[in-house]
Amino acid sequence: MRTETIVESSEASLREAYQQLQGGANAIPWWERRDLAQGLSEGFVVGTASETAFLLLERLARDPKWEVRAAIADLLPVLPEAERKRLTELLLGDSNTHVRRTVEHAIERRKREIRATGKARKSADQVSAQLQAIEDEFGKTAATKALRLAERYSEMLVASIVHDLRSIITHLKVNCFSLIDEVSVDAGNQAKRYGNRVRNDLQLLESSVEDMVTFTRPVPTERLPERLAVLVAEALELTRDNVRKSKFEPDIVSVQHDVPESIVVPLARHQIVIALANVLKNAYEAFQANGAMRPGAIRIAASTCQKWVTLTIEDTGQGICDEELRTPLLLTPGRRNKSKRQSTGYGLPIAARNVAAHGGSLRLESRENEGTTVTILLPRECQ
Question: pTM score, two decimals?
Answer without folding.
Answer: 0.62
